[in-house]
Amino acid sequence: MAGLALLCVTTALLLAASGGAIPPPEEAARMARFVLHNCDWGALATLSAQEGLRGQPFANIFSLSDGPPGPLGGSGVPYLYLTDMEISVQDLEINSNASLTVSLAQTPYCKKHKYDPQNPLCAHIIFCGSIVKVNDSEAGLAKKALFSRHPEMESWPKDHNWFFAKFNITNIWVLDYFGGLKIVTPEEYYSVKP
Protein backbone atom coordinates (compact mmCIF):
# COMPACT_ATOMS: atom_id res chain seq x y z
CA MET A 1 0.00 0.00 0.00
CA ALA A 2 2.91 2.35 0.74
CA GLY A 3 4.26 1.67 -2.76
CA LEU A 4 0.94 2.70 -4.31
CA ALA A 5 0.88 5.91 -2.25
CA LEU A 6 4.46 6.68 -3.34
CA LEU A 7 3.51 6.09 -7.00
CA CYS A 8 0.53 8.46 -6.70
CA VAL A 9 2.68 11.14 -5.08
CA THR A 10 5.41 10.66 -7.72
CA THR A 11 2.88 10.92 -10.55
CA ALA A 12 1.33 14.04 -9.01
CA LEU A 13 4.80 15.59 -8.74
CA LEU A 14 5.50 14.67 -12.36
CA LEU A 15 2.35 16.40 -13.52
CA ALA A 16 3.13 19.42 -11.35
CA ALA A 17 6.72 19.54 -12.60
CA SER A 18 5.54 19.54 -16.20
CA GLY A 19 3.33 22.51 -15.49
CA GLY A 20 0.33 20.39 -14.53
CA ALA A 21 -1.55 21.47 -17.62
CA ILE A 22 -1.83 19.06 -20.49
CA PRO A 23 -1.24 20.33 -24.01
CA PRO A 24 -4.27 21.62 -25.93
CA PRO A 25 -6.05 19.21 -28.32
CA GLU A 26 -4.65 20.95 -31.40
CA GLU A 27 -1.09 19.98 -30.34
CA ALA A 28 -1.36 16.22 -30.88
CA ALA A 29 2.39 15.56 -31.14
CA ARG A 30 3.04 17.41 -27.90
CA MET A 31 0.16 15.53 -26.25
CA ALA A 32 1.71 12.21 -27.27
CA ARG A 33 5.05 13.20 -25.74
CA PHE A 34 3.34 14.53 -22.59
CA VAL A 35 1.32 11.35 -22.01
CA LEU A 36 4.27 9.02 -22.55
CA HIS A 37 6.54 11.05 -20.27
CA ASN A 38 3.94 11.10 -17.47
CA CYS A 39 3.19 7.37 -17.63
CA ASP A 40 5.26 4.66 -15.96
CA TRP A 41 3.70 1.66 -17.68
CA GLY A 42 1.76 0.67 -20.74
CA ALA A 43 -0.13 -2.19 -22.37
CA LEU A 44 2.06 -3.91 -24.97
CA ALA A 45 0.17 -5.98 -27.55
CA THR A 46 1.92 -8.69 -29.54
CA LEU A 47 0.85 -11.51 -31.81
CA SER A 48 1.03 -14.58 -29.62
CA ALA A 49 3.44 -17.40 -30.39
CA GLN A 50 2.12 -19.45 -27.45
CA GLU A 51 0.48 -22.84 -27.98
CA GLY A 52 -3.29 -22.45 -28.15
CA LEU A 53 -3.05 -18.68 -28.81
CA ARG A 54 -0.73 -18.67 -31.83
CA GLY A 55 -1.46 -15.68 -34.07
CA GLN A 56 -3.97 -14.14 -31.66
CA PRO A 57 -3.55 -10.65 -30.18
CA PHE A 58 -2.06 -10.74 -26.69
CA ALA A 59 -1.69 -7.71 -24.41
CA ASN A 60 0.51 -7.51 -21.34
CA ILE A 61 1.52 -4.73 -18.94
CA PHE A 62 5.12 -3.48 -18.96
CA SER A 63 6.93 -0.83 -16.97
CA LEU A 64 8.49 1.77 -19.22
CA SER A 65 10.21 5.14 -19.23
CA ASP A 66 11.29 7.75 -21.75
CA GLY A 67 13.64 9.36 -19.25
CA PRO A 68 13.99 10.50 -15.66
CA PRO A 69 11.02 12.28 -14.07
CA GLY A 70 10.72 16.02 -14.55
CA PRO A 71 9.89 18.42 -17.33
CA LEU A 72 13.20 18.08 -19.19
CA GLY A 73 13.83 14.35 -18.75
CA GLY A 74 11.87 12.84 -21.62
CA SER A 75 13.44 11.64 -24.86
CA GLY A 76 10.15 10.35 -26.29
CA VAL A 77 11.68 6.88 -26.69
CA PRO A 78 9.78 4.22 -24.70
CA TYR A 79 12.45 2.06 -23.01
CA LEU A 80 11.70 -1.35 -21.48
CA TYR A 81 13.62 -3.85 -19.34
CA LEU A 82 12.93 -7.34 -20.64
CA THR A 83 13.83 -10.99 -20.23
CA ASP A 84 13.43 -13.85 -22.71
CA MET A 85 11.59 -15.73 -19.94
CA GLU A 86 8.57 -13.40 -20.34
CA ILE A 87 5.86 -14.75 -22.66
CA SER A 88 5.36 -11.50 -24.58
CA VAL A 89 9.10 -11.34 -25.23
CA GLN A 90 8.89 -14.87 -26.61
CA ASP A 91 6.19 -13.57 -28.97
CA LEU A 92 8.49 -10.71 -30.01
CA GLU A 93 11.28 -13.16 -30.85
CA ILE A 94 9.00 -14.57 -33.56
CA ASN A 95 7.48 -11.24 -34.66
CA SER A 96 8.93 -8.01 -33.25
CA ASN A 97 5.91 -5.93 -34.34
CA ALA A 98 3.77 -4.63 -31.49
CA SER A 99 1.55 -1.83 -30.32
CA LEU A 100 1.90 0.07 -27.06
CA THR A 101 -0.91 1.99 -25.36
CA VAL A 102 -0.32 4.51 -22.57
CA SER A 103 -3.06 6.50 -20.85
CA LEU A 104 -3.36 9.39 -18.43
CA ALA A 105 -5.82 7.12 -16.59
CA GLN A 106 -2.79 5.87 -14.61
CA THR A 107 -2.11 9.39 -13.34
CA PRO A 108 -4.26 11.45 -10.95
CA TYR A 109 -5.34 13.69 -13.86
CA CYS A 110 -8.39 11.70 -15.02
CA LYS A 111 -9.69 10.96 -11.52
CA LYS A 112 -9.30 14.62 -10.55
CA HIS A 113 -11.45 15.62 -13.53
CA LYS A 114 -13.81 12.66 -13.06
CA TYR A 115 -12.97 11.30 -16.52
CA ASP A 116 -13.59 7.62 -17.12
CA PRO A 117 -10.50 5.94 -18.66
CA GLN A 118 -12.49 5.46 -21.87
CA ASN A 119 -13.46 9.16 -22.07
CA PRO A 120 -11.40 10.78 -24.86
CA LEU A 121 -10.53 13.65 -22.49
CA CYS A 122 -8.56 11.08 -20.46
CA ALA A 123 -5.93 11.10 -23.18
CA HIS A 124 -4.36 7.92 -24.42
CA ILE A 125 -1.76 7.26 -27.07
CA ILE A 126 -1.33 4.19 -29.25
CA PHE A 127 2.13 3.57 -30.68
CA CYS A 128 2.76 0.98 -33.38
CA GLY A 129 6.19 -0.29 -34.31
CA SER A 130 8.61 -2.92 -33.11
CA ILE A 131 10.69 -3.81 -30.08
CA VAL A 132 14.45 -3.79 -30.55
CA LYS A 133 17.31 -4.41 -28.14
CA VAL A 134 19.30 -1.26 -27.54
CA ASN A 135 22.94 -1.20 -28.60
CA ASP A 136 25.77 -0.72 -26.10
CA SER A 137 25.96 3.02 -26.72
CA GLU A 138 22.27 3.46 -25.83
CA ALA A 139 22.18 1.01 -22.89
CA GLY A 140 23.33 3.62 -20.35
CA LEU A 141 20.55 6.00 -21.41
CA ALA A 142 17.96 3.22 -21.20
CA LYS A 143 19.22 2.14 -17.78
CA LYS A 144 19.07 5.69 -16.41
CA ALA A 145 15.59 6.22 -17.86
CA LEU A 146 14.19 2.99 -16.41
CA PHE A 147 15.97 2.74 -13.06
CA SER A 148 15.19 6.38 -12.21
CA ARG A 149 11.46 5.55 -12.33
CA HIS A 150 11.57 1.86 -11.43
CA PRO A 151 14.40 1.43 -8.88
CA GLU A 152 13.20 -2.07 -8.00
CA MET A 153 14.39 -3.26 -11.43
CA GLU A 154 18.02 -2.98 -10.38
CA SER A 155 17.51 -5.82 -7.86
CA TRP A 156 15.64 -8.20 -10.17
CA PRO A 157 17.25 -11.68 -10.44
CA LYS A 158 20.42 -11.52 -12.56
CA ASP A 159 19.93 -15.11 -13.75
CA HIS A 160 16.88 -13.92 -15.76
CA ASN A 161 19.25 -12.27 -18.27
CA TRP A 162 17.50 -8.91 -18.37
CA PHE A 163 18.20 -6.61 -21.29
CA PHE A 164 17.27 -3.09 -22.30
CA ALA A 165 15.01 -2.59 -25.28
CA LYS A 166 13.13 0.24 -26.90
CA PHE A 167 9.92 0.63 -28.79
CA ASN A 168 10.86 1.67 -32.33
CA ILE A 169 7.90 3.91 -33.22
CA THR A 170 6.53 3.83 -36.78
CA ASN A 171 2.96 5.09 -36.25
CA ILE A 172 1.25 7.16 -33.55
CA TRP A 173 -2.44 7.69 -32.83
CA VAL A 174 -3.64 10.23 -30.27
CA LEU A 175 -7.06 10.16 -28.66
CA ASP A 176 -7.37 13.24 -26.45
CA TYR A 177 -10.60 14.91 -27.54
CA PHE A 178 -13.92 14.18 -29.19
CA GLY A 179 -14.02 13.61 -32.95
CA GLY A 180 -11.75 10.61 -33.38
CA LEU A 181 -8.10 9.71 -33.48
CA LYS A 182 -5.36 12.06 -34.63
CA ILE A 183 -2.39 10.73 -36.55
CA VAL A 184 1.08 11.99 -35.61
CA THR A 185 4.21 11.06 -37.56
CA PRO A 186 7.34 9.99 -35.69
CA GLU A 187 9.09 13.05 -37.13
CA GLU A 188 6.43 15.37 -35.65
CA TYR A 189 6.55 13.47 -32.36
CA TYR A 190 10.31 13.69 -31.88
CA SER A 191 10.48 17.35 -32.94
CA VAL A 192 8.44 18.62 -29.96
CA LYS A 193 8.95 18.64 -26.21
CA PRO A 194 6.21 17.38 -23.86
Describe the model:
Residues 23-191 form the CREG-like beta-barrel domain. This is CREG1 protein. Belongs to the CREG family. Residues 1-21 form the signal peptide. This protein is of the alpha+beta class and 194 residues long. It has a single domain, classed as Pnp Oxidase, Chain A (Roll). It is 30% helix and 26% strand. It has six helices and seven strands; from the N terminus they run H-H-E-E-E-H-E-H-E-H-E-E-H. Strands 1, 2, 3, 4, 5, 6 and 7 form a seven-stranded antiparallel sheet that branches. A hairpin with a 6-residue loop joins strand 6 and strand 7. It starts with a helix and ends with a helix. Mean pLDDT is 90; it is low at 1-19.
Oligomer: single chain
Low-confidence stretches: 1-19
Enter the CATH topology name.
Answer: Pnp Oxidase, Chain A
Task: Specify the structural class.
Answer: alpha+beta
Helix fraction by DSSP (H/I, runs of at least 4): 25-40%
Indicate the overall shape: globular
Total helical segments = 6
The chain-level mean pLDDT equals 90
Order of helices and strands: HHEEEHEHEHEEH
What's the CATH architecture? Roll
CATH superfamily: Electron Transport, Fmn-binding Protein, Chain A
Number of strands: 7
> How much β-strand is present in the residues?
25-35%
Gyration radius (Cα, Å) is 16 Å
Q: What's the structural domain tally?
A: 1
Biggest pleated-sheet summary: 7 strands, antiparallel
